[in-house]
Specification:
Low-confidence stretches: 44-52, 146-150, 185-190, 393-405
CATH superfamily of the largest domain: Glycogen Phosphorylase B
CATH architecture of the largest domain: 3-Layer(aba) Sandwich
Mean pLDDT: 84
Strand content: 15-25%
Number of helices: 15
CATH topology of the largest domain: Rossmann fold
Number of domains: 2
């Protein structure tokens, strides 16, 4: 890859001045671009040949020398007692923030003498109340750049920390670069990775005892139980989350699912707003209120969205409905979770629009919300999901637990 120098730098012992052009590897070129010292063609402008291996390294394990930001240290294992690590998280939504909470106990266990700061968007900070984790707002450390729609950490922030890692980056590489250049359909072992594994590998951490740092208070848990029991019928409480922020995951057969489950459960629909359907619903919850309700549920049934990940990190019996993502991969660190894989060729969303396996019949319409539902789910998926729900009530051992053993 050829890059054009913006600010003076020395690379491999050679001094370059603004306007100079030199050859480097794609991974190094993009790192220098992230630092703002060169202009490099972006992935979608660049044709890959032998560089596939470089990209694979970015996800497999964080190699020496690949540095995102201009800090004093290059890797986690170089940090000395008392030095400061900042972990940045932006890409993704609440589900990813919940998964990221599993990183910090292992960081404390394996690197007890370093000082860790987490920089997620400010709206997610209440999740980490009472954890002792130092927080700063993502919005306060990042400076946006319009060129290539990218950005950089502010210079004064780089000076204040010994190492800064952006764990959003490997997901961006995985789900965009690899997919664009054959990663979805490849047979070389890089199709699916658990997100926690990707982020841990990226910063050089080993996941030994995955557990959340998030703690709900007894008062919050009591409020969650009270909210569900207010509409109780004496039957177990099942939280059903059929709607995601990603329209490709939205489950269309909501009414049919309610009819199938209501005999054995008090089914509570859960969404950010009330759905125009009858029956118990919980809606408009705050971040921690959602967690408290999930902690109180006897069973969680959810598409791949934040409700499912709340159940996973809190250790509640949960069943995930997966279509565009791989359920076995996403449940790896959730011993109390199981999954229903309604599509055996998940596509990480990118091929959703043109999938030949889509259901072609008429789909139900949810009036008033303007929600698009997914064509990944045929009417037969209702029976598939109900069978999985019933297998738990019959005492069958969790497949997720077998997977994690």
């Amino acid at each position: 890859m050829q890059v054009e120098v913006i600010y003076p730098l020395t690379e491999d012992g050679i001094a370059y001045q603004p306007g100079d052009v030199f050859q480097t590897t794609p991974s190094r070129g993009w790192r220098l671009h992230d630092l703002g010292v060169v202009k490099a063609p972006m992935p979608w402008e660049y044709e890959y040949r032998d560089e596939w291996g470089d990209l694979r390294k970015l996800i497999g394990a964080r190699p020496e020398g690949i540095v995102q930001f201009a800090t004093r240290r290059r890797r986690l294992d170089e940090l000395r007692p008392g030095e400061k690590l900042m972990v940045i998280r932006k890409y993704g939504g609440l589900g990813d923030i919940l998964i990221s909470s599993l990183l910090f106990p292992d960081l404390r266990d394996q690197y007890p003498d370093i000082r860790v700061t987490y920089a997620p968007p400010k709206q997610y900070h209440p999740l980490f109340a009472g954890t002792g984790l130092e927080l700063v707002a993502y919005e306060d450390v990042w400076t946006q750049s319009t060129e290539y729609h990218r950005g950089n950490v502010r210079g004064e922030v780089c000076e204040a920390y010994d190492l800064i890692e952006d764990i959003s980056y490997p997901c961006h590489v995985w789900e965009n670069l690899f997919v664009a250049y054959g990663g979805v359909d490849g047979n070389d072992g890089i199709r699916w990775r658990n997100r926690l594994d990707m982020w841990a590998n990226w910063i050089g951490l080993t996941i030994k005892n995955a557990r959340t740092i998030i703690r709900l208070t007894e008062d919050e848990r009591a409020a969650g139980r009270k909210r569900l029991q207010a509409e109780g019928t004496g039957k177990p409480h099942l939280l059903f989350a059929p709607i995601s922020a990603a329209r490709s995951k939205n489950f269309p057969w909501i009414v049919e699912m309610l009819q199938a489950l209501n005999q054995d459960y008090t089914v509570h629909l859960i969404h950010s707003e009330r759905l125009p359907l009858s029956g118990p619903q919980v809606a408009g919850l705050g971040l921690r209120e959602m967690g408290a309700v999930c902690a109180a549920a006897d069973l969680i049934l959810s598409v791949d969205t934040s409700v499912f990940h709340w159940g996973g990190i809190l250790g509640r019996p949960s069943i995930g409905i997966f279509n565009v993502n791989d359920g076995a991969t996403y449940c790896k660190y959730y011993p109390t979770a199981r999954w229903v894989q309604t599509c055996d060729t998940p596509c990480i969303n990118v091929k959703y629009r043109n999938c030949a396996k889509h259901y072609t019949g008429n789909l139900p319409v949810i009036p008033g919300l303007g929600l698009e539902v997914s064509r990944c789910f045929s009417p037969e998926s209702v029976l598939q999901i109900v069978e999985e729900v019933n297998s738990e009530s019959g005492g069958e051992k969790s497949r997720a637990a077998r997977y994690c053993a």
